[in-house]
Amino acid sequence: MNKFFKVISLLLLALIVLNASAKDSARIVRVKDGDTYVFRKGNTDFTVRLKNIDAPELKQPFGYLSFIYTSKLISGKMVSYDSTGKDLYGRVLADIWVDNQRLDSTLISNGWAWHYQTYSNDTLLKSLMVSAINANKGLWKCGMNGVCPPSFWRSYNLRNKNKYCKSCN
After folding, report:
1. Integer Cα distance of 147 and 72 in angstroms
2. CB–CB of 139/61 below 8 Å?
3. Which of the four, 85, 131, 150, 167, has the lowest number of CB atoms within 10 Å?
4. What residue spans define the domains of the chain?
5. What is the mean pLDDT of residues 142-157?
6. Which of the following is catalytic: 27, 30, 49, 154?
7. pTM for this entry
8. Does the annotation count 49 as an active-site position?
9. Which position among 27, 30, 40, 91 bears the catalytic label?
10. Any idea which architecture 23-123+130-164 has in CATH?
11. In the annotation, is 57 catalytic?
């Protein structure tokens, strides 16, 4: 009987490990902005929010450029993803890989998104953002002057957006 429980325990452990490392795949059918996309799996479309990053809002400085860069990178492609639940808006939260590359790393290292440190303590992403800032890439083209994170942008009224989120164009 004891041997039976050991075998069952090992099988359950193996199943958990396999399930934890399993990636799903879907096609990107629409890019809503730099960090939100519509996936199609079979006949079902669903909205996915990329974890670990916060990309500029479309109307925010560099928001449209982030959208264009991301669209060129992923539109129409098959991607791998690991879902970790849903956010407050019902979007699937996921880590995403495009051509076996982490999408969050790609966007941050090219300066098209912030490492969302409120929800992620990934040291690689933190160092990639510092490198993008130092290299003046993407939204960091003028360093940190006039750049405000999307979380600030969403909370500011028009007066404060104009005051603190000017950008350098």
Report:
1. 23
2. yes
3. 85
4. 23-123+130-164
5. 88
6. 49
7. 0.84
8. yes
9. 91
10. Beta Barrel (2.40)
11. yes
